[in-house]
Amino acid sequence: MESCLNASKAQQETSIDGILVIDEKRKVLNYNSRFAEMWGIPEELIQTFDDRKLLDYILPFLKDAEEFISKVEYLYENRYETSKDEILLNDGRIFDRFTGPVLLPEGIPYARIWYFRDVTESHRLKQELRDLSLNDELTGLYNRRGFLTFAQQQIKIADRTKKEMMLFFVDMDDLKLINDNLGHHTGDMAIKETALVL
């Protein structure tokens, strides 16, 4: 069993995931350097091979430490369960966390493996794409699609709460004249200035 874990150590070191394997007695059986790096765990701490000490170390970094520890304890008690979720850190990073049991050939769990992946950048890019698809690049205000999405939400809220809502339309006179005589750069500036007032 241990030779199997050691054989996969080289593979684990090439992974983009932080990997941690904990046995039934809450002892660290295996980990990769990416795990220690992601969490900033000092070598001397990880070499204690004590899962509880590792948990105590990382809890202050978490936005919701109570939920994190509650989930960990639940999973250690429910040995056959797998789980996938996201963890928010105080420094703004977001980690995907996946865990499942490590089974003996007879199908009995003897350890639990944890995978952590930093997905902060992909979340940021997704948010940027969402913003681009709903917002005008020049002004930052909603574009047509963003406005329609927002308006539909507001109409539903007004309907549900039985409150009135108002919608008004702003038109810029002579924008074509500004673009033709002073250039599109000046026209863009006029649009930006008007957007700031709204």
Q: What do you see in this structure?
A:
The chain has 198 residues and is an alpha+beta fold. The chain has ten helices and five strands, in the order H-H-E-E-H-H-H-H-E-E-E-H-H-H-H. The protein has helices at 2-7, 9-13, 33-39, 43-46, 51-58, 65-77, 120-134, 144-161, 175-182, 184-197, and strands at 18-23, 28-31, 83-88, 94-103, 109-118. A five-stranded antiparallel beta sheet has the order 2-1-5-4-3, with helices on both faces. Strand 1 (18-23) and strand 2 form a beta hairpin. The longest helix is centred in the last third of the chain and has 18 residues, at 144-161. The chain is elongated. The mean pLDDT is 85.
Provide tags for this entry.
single chain; 198 residues; alpha+beta; 5-stranded antiparallel beta sheet; 5 strands; 49% helix
Mean pLDDT: 85
* Low-confidence segments: none
- Structural category is alpha+beta
- How many whole angstroms does the radius of gyration measure? 26 Å
Separation of the first and last Cα atoms: 67 Å
Q: Beta fraction of the residues?
A: 15-25%
Biggest sheet: strands side by side, in what order? 2-1-5-4-3
Total strands: the figure is: 5
Count of DSSP H/I helices: 10
How many strands, what sense, and barrel or not for the largest sheet?
5 strands, antiparallel
Helical residue percent? 40-55%
Global shape? elongated
Taken in chain order, the helices and strands follow as HHEEHHHHEEEHHHH
